[in-house]
Design a protein that fits this description.
- By secondary structure, this protein is mainly β.
- The protein has one domain (about 20-135).
- The protein has 1 helix and 9 strands, in the order H-E-E-E-E-E-E-E-E-E.
- Strands 3-2-5-6-9-8-7-1-4 form a 9-stranded mixed beta sheet, with no helix packed on it.
- The longest helix has 16 residues, at about 1-15.
Length: about 140
């Protein structure tokens, strides 16, 4: 009986947190977010307005400022010894002037040491913009 209650509770909680991503609007551009070196990259602000859903950006054609939150780990050590990883939180801003309707873009955040970087790719894989501003917390 207890197992059944735990299973029911887990199902209810997962239903609350797994909101499906809406379909892409063909009149707007869609920006997917990805990282291969970090733990988390989330949409934070679009044109200085907080995003309700941090999983993607959907933008009108033209020029926009995208800000993402990027979390990654760094290893700090002294005398050749590594310690446990420390969390690093950065806010990375990317500007792009030519978003096209119906196009998909990919914003990839990455880390190298203590530094965070981002690139915006178009649908063909071409880099169309790089980070303009990076603000990190320890």
């Amino acid at each position: 009986m207890r197992t059944l209650l735990w299973l029911l509770a887990a199902c209810l909680l997962s239903a609350c947190t797994s909101t499906p991503i809406p379909p892409a609007d063909p009149a707007m551009a869609w920006v997917d977010l990805e990282t291969q070196t970090g733990k988390l990259v989330m949409a934070e602000r679009l044109d200085n307005k907080r995003q309700a859903d941090g999983r993607y950006f959907q933008v009108t054609p033209g020029s926009h400022e995208l800000m993402v939150r990027f979390d990654f780990e760094v290893f700090v050590g002294g005398m050749g010894m590594f310690s446990d990883p420390q969390e690093r939180l950065c806010y990375v801003t990317v500007d792009y002037d030519n978003f096209q309707p119906g196009q998909r873009y990919r914003l990839q955040a990455r880390s190298l040491g203590f530094n965070a970087y981002a690139r915006l790719y178009d649908a063909t894989g071409k880099v169309v913009a790089e980070e303009r501003l990076v603000n990190c917390l320890p």
